[in-house]
Amino acid sequence: xxxxxxxxxxxxxxxxxxxxxxxxxxxxxxxxxxxxxxxxxxxxxxxxxxxxxxxxxxxxxxxxxxxxxxxxxxxxxxxxxxxxxxxxxxxxxxxxxxxxxxxxxxxxxxxxxxxxxxxxxxxxxxxxxxxxxxxxxxxxxxxxxxxxxxx
Length: 151
Ligand SMILES: [Zn+2]
Prior knowledge:
Elements: H1 3-12, H2 20-24, H3 26-31, H4 45-61, E1 75-79, H5 86-89, E2 95-99, H6 100-108, H7 110-121, H8 123-133, H9 141-149
Antiparallel strand pairs: 1-2
Helix pairs in contact: 4-9, 7-8
This protein binds zinc ion.
């Protein structure tokens, strides 16, 4: 069955089945070397988290220097409010670009870190981020990712 025949079958069956592939069979299409139509793939939650992490992590490190001491090597993506809170995990203004040294230091010195954050973004924004982090509105990761990806 060639590409022309496949299209013909799809056309004939349009509306008859929820998926035309049910009638003609995906495996049959593969055998004759035609590609099944590409469907919008719904990503799993785990896949979305990975994709968002890759996307935003890259953006944050691309700031190019440590927010604490200006170093330009071993840059890492650090979170103002912990990344355990998915509501703020991918917000760029909840992110700091830090060198490995200061990222490690601040992870182990939360009081100094909080002080640094307040100097950097102000107490009001810091409190807003915490509020947002603990709000329980449902989050649609798929739409969130699609939106970010295209910006
Ligand atoms: Zn640094």
